[in-house]
Every structure is written in C-alpha cells, then in structure tokens.
Amino acid sequence: MEAMVSRSPGLWQRALRSRSFVIGAVLTSIIVLAAALSLVWTPYNYAAQDIPHRLMGLTAEHWFGTDQYGRDVFSQILVGARTSIVVALIAVGIGILIGTPLGLWAAAKRGTLLDEVILRANDLVFAFPALLIAVLITAVFGPGAINAIIAIGIFNIPVFARLTRAAALSLWTADFILAARVAGKNASRISVEHILPNILNTLVVQSTIQFSLGILAEAALAYVGLGAQPPIPSWGKMLADSQTLVGLAPQLALIPGLAIVLTVLGLNLLGDGLRDIFDPRLGGSRR
Amino acid sequence: MSLLSVSGLNVTIGATPILRDVSLSVEPGRVLGVIGESGAGKSMTALAIMGLLPAGARADGAAILEGADLLGKSEREMCTIRGRDIGMVFQEPATALDPLQTIGQQVAETILVHTGASRRDALVEADRALARAGLSQEHFPRDRFPHDLSGGQRQRVVIASAIALRPKLLIADEPTTALDVTTQARVIALFRSLVDEEGMGLIFITHDLALVTGLADDIAVMRSGEIVDGGATREVFRSLAHPYTRQLFEASSHVPVRDPALRGGAPVLEVTDVVRDYLRPPRRVFGPPGAFRAVDGVSFSIGRGENVGLVGESGSGKSTLARAILGLDRVQAGSIVIDGTALDDSDRATRRKVQAVFQDPYGSFDPRQRVDTLVTEPFHLLGNEAPRGAERRQRAEAALETVGLNVADVDKYIHEFSGGQRQRIAIARALIIEPKLIVLDEAVSALDVSVRAQILDLLAELSDRLSISYLFISHDLGVVRAITDRVLVMKAGKIVETGRTDKVFASPQHPYTRELIAAAPSLSRALAG
Amino acid sequence: MGGYFAGRLVSLIVSLAVASIVIFLVLEVLPGDPAQFILGLNARPDTLAALRHELGIDAPAIVRYFSWIAGMLHGDFGISYTYRVPVGELIAQRIGVSAPLAIYALALTLIIAVPAGVLSAARRNSATDLAVMGATQFGVAVPNFWFAIILVWIFAVTLHWFSAGGFPGWDRGFWEGIRNLTLPAVALALPQASILARVMRSSLLDTLDEDYIRTARAHGLSRGQALWRHALRNALIPVLTIVGLQFAFLLAGGIIIENVFTLPGLGRLVFQAITQRDLITVKSVVMLLVFAVIVVNFLVELSYVWVDPRLRRR
Fold first, then answer.
1. In this predicted model, what pLDDT tens digit does every residue of C52-66 receive, in sequence order?
2. Most buried by CB count within 10 Å: which residue of A256, A285, C178, C307?
3. Total beta-carbon pairs less than 8 A apart between chain A and chain B
4. What does B444-476 look like in DSSP terms, one character per residue?
5. pTM higher than 0.90, yes or no?
6. Phi then psi for C299, rounded to 5 degrees?
7. ipTM of the predicted structure?
8. Chains with 3 or more CB pairs closer than 8 angstroms to B?
9. Which secondary-structure segment (H or E) carries B250?
C-alpha cells in the first residue's frame, strides 16, 4: 500500500525538481492568465472587423496578424482561451461531482446488484463514440457552449466513476479499513473519511488529464460548428475558418492549433508532474 | 575445495553501502543457512552471486564457483551459468511463474536455453524434473497452467525448473515463507533429499531460526549487511558466542512471563454452533449459486483474562471466524455471545467489548491521519458518550504510554514509526475503549523475531494487568505455545482439537494436530537431535 | 469457458438493446415532435399531419421503437427524408469509405505504436526512450483535425503529393483508393498511436517488474530474451483493452476527419443529415456506429480468453 506523504516538507522540493511539473505548471499558468486577462482587456475588440487590413501577417500592431475579416487574431486567441478553459473545466466538474460519488458507492457495495448496474452503465457510455454523441446532443439540442459543456461532461462521468471505483476497491481490502469497521463505522462513513482522502491524489491527476481531453473535445466540437457560437471566438472555429486559406495565410491555421497543442501539452505535463510528486516511487520517466 | 567461496563481497547502491565484507563458503552436499532479520542483506548476497543485482548497484570482492570468479564475469557469461551451474528459487510462488505459459514450458525453458535439445526432448526432461520435485506426470501433466496449482505446488515447479539441469549450487531465498506449515515441511524435505542425493550445495536464506537450524549443516548470521557469526549450525547455537546470535536465539525461543493467577470468571465469549457460508458464482450460466462453508459448526468459549490460541492453515476458516466474532460478517447459524449479550452488528454497546489487532503494521493505519486520530477511532462505538477535546487527547496519550510509547507521539504521522512501534500503536488502539476481548489476527507474524519477543511481552503483561482476554490467531505454533493458555486447532471450518496449550503440544490427540506439530520447525528439537 | 462466452454474449445483447433505446429516446422522443423538428416551427398543421403519417410516427413510441428494431434486423433502415432513398443504400455506399479508413488508421496506429512502445520500454531512459516519450507527448496533444489541415498544407497544397480532399471511388483501383485515404488515415492515426505507444510502454515496464521475469533470468535468459518470451505477451493484455476503446475513437474521429478531407463517408452523411434534420438517417447511422463499437469490444473480450489461460477455467 502506498504511503501518500501529503504533509511532508519535501513536497514543494519534489515539485520543483520535477521537470514535467515545472514546465506543465508554467504553460498552464500562461494559458489561464491569458484567459483571465481576456476578461478585462484585449488589444482589440475580438469582433471588430477591419477589412482593409485583413489577412495580415505578424506585425507590431497585430501581434498574431488578422483574419479574413481583419479581426485581430491575438485578441481572438485570448478570448478563445477563456472559452476552452471554461468549457473543459465545468465539464470536468460535472464528471467529478457525479462520477466520484457513483464510484465510491459502487466500491462500497461491490459485488451487489448496484455495483453491477453502475459498472454496466459505465461500459455502455464508453461504448458510444464520445465525440459522435457529443455531436449528436449538440446538434439535436442546438449548438452552443452550454450544450458542449453538458455533452463533454456526460463523458467525464463514467471516467471518474470507473477510476474512483478501481482506486477505492484497492483500498477496501486494506487493514485500516477493517479497523474502521471494527470501530463501528459504516460504509458511507468509511468512504468519506478514509477512502476519499486517500484517492484524492489519483483524482487530481486524472482531472488534469480530463481537463486536457476536454480542451481537445471542445476544439473538435467548435471546429464542426457545435461549440460556442460566433461572435464568441473559439480556437476550433478559428481553425475551421482557416482551412480554405491555408495556402494564403498559413499562420491562421498554425496559431490556434499551436495554442491548443501548448495548452493540452501543459496540462498533460502538469498531470505527469503531479503523479511524480504524489508517488515518487514510480520514478520520473516512468510514465 | 569449496563449491562456492565468497570473500570480501561489498555491494553499494549509489552511495549507500548494502553489503560489507561478506564472506561465506558452501560445500557440495551440504546446506548453508543464511539467517538474519529483514534488511540484513541476505537476499542481496544471493542476488550478487547470481549477478542479478538491481540497476545502479555495484559489487566488488570475489565469488568463486569451482575456480571461476562470478563477479568478474560479463552478463553474457552469467547467462550461461544461471540455470545450468546455479539454480535459484525465490519467495513468492504466487507470482514466480508466467501465468500465460504451461508449467512444462517453463521448466523446459531452462533446458532449451542451455542445451541444443529439441523442444520435445526438453519437455521430456522437464517431466523428469517435475517428478523429481514431487509433481508426478499423472497428477500434474505438463500442460497445466500455474493458476491450476496451489502455492506449494507452484513452488515445486519453480524448484523443478531450477534443478532441471542438475546445477551444482542451489540458492533458495525464503522459499517456504509464503507456504503453510505442513507444505513447508514437505518442501524442506525435498530440499534435503536434493542435497543428499544429487550432492548439490544449497544456500538457504530465511529469517526463521527454528527452520534453518533443522535444515542447515552450516550457518551464517547476518546483520545490517555484514556477517557477524558463522560455523557449523549446532556449534553456533550451542555456544552462542556472538551477542547478536544470542539475541536472535533468545528472541526465537522467548516465552513471556505470565501470572497464571488472574484466571476464571464468567465467559467473555461464547461461540455456539456458528456456521458461515460464502456464496460462489454459479457453475452453469443460469444455475443456482454454490455455497462454500468456511466455518462449519464451531463452538468454544473464552473466560475472563484467558488467552486462547486459534491455529490452522490457510483456508481453515480462522480469519472468517474472527470476522464473525468482531461483528463484521453475519453468520448463517449459531450464536455469538459477548459478555452475556448476543452479538448484533448494529449493537454498539456489545461491539465495544471486542477489539482487534491485525497482521500488517504497514496497512493497519490511514496514512493521512495523525496518531491521535488513529488511536481514538474506536471511540466511534461510544456514540454520544465518546470523550471530546482535552479528555480525548488525554485518553490517547494514556493509551500510548500503556504500550510503551511516548506521549509526544500523538502528534506524529504513522509513517514516522517502525513496524514494531506500529503494532504497539495498534494495540493501543485496541485497548482504548477497554474491551473485554481482543482478537489478534496474526498480529506478530509480520514482525522481526526480536521485535516479536517484545510485543509478546507487552501483550502478556497487558493481559495480566488489565484482565483482558485474547483470541490469538496464528499459523505459527511457536508463538501460540508461548502466549496462550488454551488452544483450538481448526481445519476446514471445524475445530478438530482443543485443550490446554501445554497438554495439546505435549500429547496431541487428533492426527491433524499431530501432523501440524510434527511439521512445525522447533528449535529445541533441531538442537537436540 | 462456455460460461464466459455466454456471459459476454448476454452482455452484448443487453448493451445493444439499451443503446438502441437511448438512441431512440434521444432522437425521437426528446426533440418532441419529429415532424415539427423536421419542418420547422412555421409548418402548417395539415403538412405536419401528413408528414407524421408518412414517417409512421402517429403510432405510440413503443410500437415505433419495435418496428424500427424489426426493420433494422431485416436490413430496412427506413427512407431518408432528404434523399428519398432507402437509408440502407446510403449507408452501403458510405461504408465503403468509412470502414476502410478506420481499418487503415487502426493498422497504422498498431504498426507505429507497438514497436515504439516496446523499444521505449526495453531501452528505458535511453535516448530512444526519451525521443519516443517526447514525440508522443506532442502527439497526444495534437487535435487530429488540425494535424489534418497541416498535412494538407504540406503534402497537398505545397508538395502536391496527395490530393487535398475528395474520394473518387474504389473503381479507380485499390491503390488509388488507398492513396486518397492516406492523409486522412495518418491524421487519425497519429494521436492514437501516441496514446497507444505510451500505454504499451507503461504496460511493458509494469510487466518487466514482475517476479516471473526474475525467474526467467534465473533460468539463464538474458534481459532481452525474458522480455520477448515472457513480458511481451503479458503486457499485451491491458493494451488489447485500449485498442478496443481506440476503435471507438477512430470511428468518431473519422467523422471529423471526413469533414476536413470531404470524404463521402458515414461521418459526412451524419453531418449533412443533422443539418438537414433528416432524423431517420441520423438514427440509423448512429445505431450502426454504436453497433460496430459494441461488437468490436465484444470481440476484444473474447480475445482475452485466447490470450489469457486464467480465463479458461470456468
């Protein structure tokens, strides 16, 4: 059984020594700051058109250039960051808030009908190609950020349920759980007092991964026109618009794409780094 | 000339020295026992000889096998030596074999690697090796998979693969530690016959003093990476020259001092005709679920202040019985009466009277909590009467003092304590609500022998002073003999024999009890013969 | 073993049944009145009634559900509202693009990922390992449609090695067809291969730590031999699960990719059907895709028995 050293003074030292964590944290912070910044300031209004100056490359006035309507790309990237992060974050929240209790419950009642039902329901959701159903839901109920959040959120539920259940199951056999039962505690109390705090690390790591997957999913939905609707910019939509112009103005395809790649990369590295910190036995280059 | 002669072996991992100046020798046809507690470096010595040290480890010194220094050989050369000239058997039979290959294939592997034999010939040789290891072809055909076999049988497969090419030297690292006592005895007999009949040299590594004394001709005592004592086994243990050897010896044969006067009174526990079944998945898709009877009509009682031992091998049902007594599992029939009241798992008042100490000191505590929270967990059974605030803390501190720890320890985290200290904390936790009965499920089995002796002393003293009864569950007959007044012998869900501990050990009545006692390694018997 | 098979089969049927119910609910019951949905808010009542009758939706939901299922089992997927041809025909045409694309992408994924993962684990912490880990770290972060756009830019627009899109059909020849599917398959395969390579590496590293590897070394096997003969097969078991899941992802990703390359596959069919509110087509295509995923997962579960003898004993 792993000893989760949570309050050890070496935690910050280990964090700073993990290359993945540092790079990941830096990248993620940049994107989050960019998103936060967009709430109060962008160089230009992201929707302001300026046809005479359309399709300009990287210049001093427009750091990332302009798109086919003359809109400032840099401003669009900033606001797009906000869109992606909000969607992915809330979707992860949905997954955790619903999936984790389900997983804890299933583990506490392992072997019973309830456990079977939750497991089967999980498998069923996994059977649906996630993106397809997200497309479907947003198409049937209308495109928009809210429906994108719900669609992606729905797919996070079985991920967290399955992960929580597996992690909880491995703890249920430990002697300290037996000791808690001898002390008269019932299953739900044990789930909250003993199981949950000890699987928190795993959940945090998975959350960063699901966050990064959420960013990719949001971009894909936006690309096909089912994410946040114009005029609100989103990176996926920018890519869709850039497609026909790729010979003329490749930077319009490269920049939003790189933004996505860097965000997802940052989050993945952050997750790897956190994993290293929480369980140093696995070793730096293990995963 | 010695078969294997190790001299001045030093092993470091990174900057940390693991083995210091280790020297030993093995003669053909003789067994060298390497004894020591955990962390002594016994396994590392074996791995160094085999050239299987972990990455980052460096070894220097000499390990001369029939004139050639193993430590100077390249990896490729060692590959030709391993399996052909030296065989090795490890501790965990459950994971030692590839689950995807048949036992025949795995034994034949050794043969195929070293000889040019065809696959068919190799498999025939493998059959011979398996038979030599006690697995006859009619009962254990070569196309069986490891999961079809029990722990003892798997260990025989591993032994077969190690001896398939009749190596001159066999190294066995705690090969029977994970096995039942009776299985262990048979595997030890196998080792002995291999040494006697094939003239092999055997290095037998173990922490069990009684076991090694019965088997080894020569012995090497290790501590903290060094060999502190050695020589012919009987000599070493009769003279007890080195203080550490003496300490080990005394701890192994330690019997805590007990005051027999505090006995008698109303029974603390009365178990009557208890039956506990487990459901098994149905054999056919829509058939009825099968039932497995883990506890089959067990009855016994424990008096106030009395220590009762429960012995049995794996699968005997002793853990299941313990869980039923602790109120963790419902029984299908029979009754459990604690201090006059029938046990009902929702009745906190009755459950307060029974507490437990478990086997694994490293898994018994929530790693995220401090000692004061951990030790006071049983207060949950007190409901509204549970002490709070300052009184709670005082009770925690008092409990720690009772088990010989410091008051200041209440604020520490559990990872700051050693195995023995953790078991003390576990005992403190069991005592804190002043139960009448404590169930100790293999509570000292995972401890080193010197620590074990201290814990047994503590348990004996507490039992006498506080008039607490124990139900002491163990597979280790030596421990049970040392600390209990009465003993129950359990097999396949039934109690086959019961009586006063000294009487049962002196003259066992039931054939199974006799078999158990005969199989259990006994230091006195080994030294006497 | 018969029990295992029967159990999996029951699971398969139940999954398909529940999936079909969910799809039916989402696409027929939830949008309210499908006729209204198709014709829009301003449709006249008699047009609505006529359409309802034509679609057969004036019957209660349960009846409609079962007639839909019965129809599908006979190969009758209904008549597309937009194209006025049997949906079955539309699907048959499109599948000739989507299925080969998914298989091509899966093949590329396996060919790239398995050796990369194995090599990486075998040479842990070496330059090879770091290179593979670095490359895959990027690979999993790349959206496949963006990668597709970049591929088009480099290989089609700039280098003219491949066409930028479209699929002329298999009658031009097998290799010509494959050539047209190459860029899309590569775009799909890259992120999946990155994920799979990491999983392969991780699984193999876990396996190399197992006790039976040590036993094999004690028999005289070298590290490489022990890896090849023991670790690899054991490590493949969890990888199989992931491959099964990836198939679902490839099908879904195919939908987006077909958009980038304007391939006439099931993905584009679904998209067009959604925008044209042709719910009949949408329902059938989704059901078909889900069916494919569930069946593939079923096959993966069956394959466990072949690989892992521990599952054979009941």
1. 777 666 677 788 788
2. A256
3. 61
4. TTTS-HHHHHHHHHHHHHHHHHHT-EEEEEES-
5. no
6. -65, -40
7. 0.86
8. A, C
9. helix B243-252
